[in-house]
Amino acid sequence: MAKFAYEGVGRDGTPKKGVIDAVSLADAEAKLRGMQITPSKVKRSLGSIEIRLPRLGGVKTKTLVVFTRQLATMIDAGLPLVQCLEILGSQEPDPEFRRVIAGVKASVEQGATFAESLKRYPKVFDNLFVSLVAAGEVGGILDTILNRLAQYLEKSEKTVNKVKGALKYPAFV
Asked: Which domain holds residue 127?
């Protein structure tokens, strides 16, 4: 079966848009009519190409980059880690990441190191992130390490976007 992207109008007059599985174009149109949708545009979908950074569980790379940069700036300014996490957590718009920050903060308040606290969220902070933070804590250069991590994350995101673009181009040709 192939996928067909469609646009149409529902029985109640509302615009409808989506993707449907069908054997042929005629089959797709027949299925849409059976769903009480009058198709205005139906075409075979080329499929979707999806590339994700494997370590991010629902937290966007851009969000993590901003968090890492802001944390580095605050630590460089001499703010205590718990206060930095409190401020960043209160300003974070993403509720999932806000909960992660709150969990890390609570763990640090209970006596765990920052790296140990991050390690409890492997879907957000991968082993490289945690290991570099641990090295930064031991070496007393956490702000420098966090800035370098932010640069690394940005470069990784740019590379992923370039690969996405390169993979999408042949689909249009």
From this structure: 61-161
Burial class (CB in 10 A: 0-12, 13-18, 19+), 9: middle
Query: Do 6 and 66 sit in the same domain of this protein?
Result: no
The CATH number given to whatever domain includes residue 144 is: 1.20.81.30
Does residue 34 sit within a domain?
yes
Total domains present in the chain: 2
How many residues would you count in the chain?
173
Amino acid identity, position 47: G
β-strands 15-22, 2-10: how paired?
antiparallel
* pLDDT tens-digit map of 100-135: 999 999 999 999 999 999 999 999 999 999 999 999
Can you read off the two tokens belonging to residue 54? 């494997």
- What phi and psi values does residue 41 have, to the nearest 5 degrees? -150, 125
Which has the closest alpha carbon to 108: 84, 139, 132, 77?
84
pTM: 0.62
Residue 172 domain-assigned (yes or no): no
100: Cβ contacts below 8 Å, ≥ 6 apart: 59, 121, 124
> Cα separation of 82 and 36, whole Å?
56
